[in-house]
Predict the structure of Protein LrgB.
Amino acid sequence: MTADLLQMPSLLLFLTLAVYALAVLIRGRTGHILCNPVLISTVVLIAYLKLFNIDYAVYQDAAQYIEFWLKPAVVVLAVPLYQNWQKIRSQWMPILLSQLAGSVTGIVTGMYFAKWLGAEREVVLSLASKSVTNPVAIEITESIGGIPPITAATVIIAGLVGQLAGYKMLKSGTVTMPSSIGMSLGTASHAMGIAVSFERSRRMAAYASLGLVLNGVLTAVLMPLLLPVLGI
């Protein structure tokens, strides 16, 4: 009876929302880089599922309600993009060139690092789209013969790294323009990069949203062309 109670969809859904809300509160109080709501929630929920031996499929039945509302919520990202459209349109050439460089860098670094460490070809291919938002990354991986679960994990890791340290790394260097920081975060860390940009300004979030979209499109287009050239 207790086991059935612990894995009730309503309880799992409440736990997910409660843990995330608590993590946001902790981050607001401490401001510590490691007090990231996504990181804390992920660790706590994995520990809960492992501790009570709850299958992920059971948790997914509860989490589907959050996933359902996340999809239409993405439309909100179009608002700052629309508000800054005139400025973005006037910068189309540097935006396109920077996105090409960012997309190629994201593809090459992931694959060659894995290859250097001796990973099998399927694993190497799975890291090619690590900086692309998850739904697009999974489709790209399946089309080139990679392993989707590995891709999903690396996408989350890339997002967390960007959310935890991306902004501070850029600000500590020579990158100071909100547009450049936003594009970099959106290109390298997809939705999590947008989230950290939203905390700073709508303009930064607009460029981060643009970075996410363009990187997804360019990676999907460039991947089949780059693989023969890279010899992987």
Summary: The chain has a mean pLDDT of 83. The two ends are 52 Å apart (CA to CA). The chain has two domains: 2-76, 84-230. Residues 20 and 41 are 6 Å apart (CA to CA).
